[in-house]
Amino acid sequence: MTRRTFIESSAAFAVVPSGKAAPLPIHKAVEYSMLPASASIPDRFKMARDAGFERIECPTTPDQHEAEAMKKAAENAGIHIHSVMNMDHWKYPLSSADPAVVERSLNGARTSLRNAHFWGADTVLVVPAVVDAKTSYRDAYSRSIASIRKLLPLAEELKVIVALEEVWNKFLLSPIEFAAYIDQFKSPWARAYFDVGNVKLYGYPEDWIRTLGKRIVKLHIKDFSFRHDKQSDKLVADWVPLLEGDIDWPAIYSALHDIGYSGTATVELPSGDEAYLKEVYKRLTTILDGKAKPPLKA
């Protein structure tokens, strides 16, 4: 789907009467990576604000001059940097058996925490572990706990939350396990960054939301369409525009309302121009206002 057809398709997704639904008290944010890479830093922040977003999530930025430019651009645009997307946790997982890899990952997370403090953000997104052919689930669990504990003193010092996310890393595969994993840290500086789309492949996001409850400090918003791939005999998830996939947005709205969530929801989608960003903002507003339709497929 091109940007033009995406925007033109919005007419097909008219809102439905909301009944007793009222807008959720949730801040709307955009990923920095969704803004055109060809634009200057000031223009990217201004474009996000002009599209309607009040907050933005930025990536780990080791270059202090670039970090300063981003802080100034955010201030000039009137948009708040609310979170940092940590960048080293996939390539250098905290669950690795190699101490050098773990230390590199920890250093990246520490940079993210310092970025967050400098920008006035309150959260850093961290992928806690990656289970693969070389890393068992048991080892991923114990190693990641040990690694995250090393980050918590700095998180407490800087007053920045380490927000752990489930991201198709074959780890923390149920809401009950995720809740218990968060709880064992016994720290207000370790909480959950919940991605509505990521858990749809093997669960119900609304169930996860109610189970995690107040542990959720941030939300990622995306949409997927699921299909059975005959060649691999597996369920495949295709990225689609908001409101065009299989996420049950009315159920998400109800679950967020039930737990009293009032934080930030950040859209995590492909990049595009200002017209595209405005359409994304419109669709996000439809979801958070409780006016989205149920998915077309059961």
pLDDT averaged over residues: 92
- In CATH, the topology is named TIM Barrel
Distance between the termini: 23 Å
Task: Quote the beta fraction.
Answer: 15-25%
Series of H and E elements: HEHEHEHEHEHEHEEEHEH
Give the overall shape, derived from the CA principal axes.
Answer: globular
**Widest sheet: strand ordering:** 1-2-3-4-5-6-7-10
CATH superfamily annotation: Divalent-metal-dependent TIM barrel enzymes
Tell me roughly what share of residues is in helical segments.
25-40%
* Low-pLDDT residue intervals, each spanning 5 or more residues: 1-5, 10-18
**Overall radius of gyration:** 19 Å
The total of beta strands comes to 10
The helix count comes to 9
CATH architecture assignment: Alpha-Beta Barrel
Indicate the structural class: alpha/beta
Main beta sheet:
8 strands, parallel, barrel
Q: Which class in CATH terms?
A: Alpha Beta
Short descriptors:
298 residues, alpha/beta, TIM Barrel, 8-stranded parallel β-barrel, two-stranded antiparallel ribbon, 9 helices, 18% strand
Question: What would a concise description of this structure say?
Answer:
Helices cover 39% and strands 18% of the residues.
Please write out the topology.
Blueprint: H1 3-8, E1 27-31, H2 41-50, E2 55-59, H3 64-77, E3 80-85, H4 99-119, E4 123-126, H5 137-158, E5 161-164, H6 175-183, E6 190-195, H7 205-212, E7 216-221, E8 223-229, E9 234-240, H8 249-259, E10 264-267, H9 274-288
Parallel strand pairs: 1-2, 1-10, 2-3, 3-4, 4-5, 5-6, 6-7, 7-10
Antiparallel strand pairs: 8-9
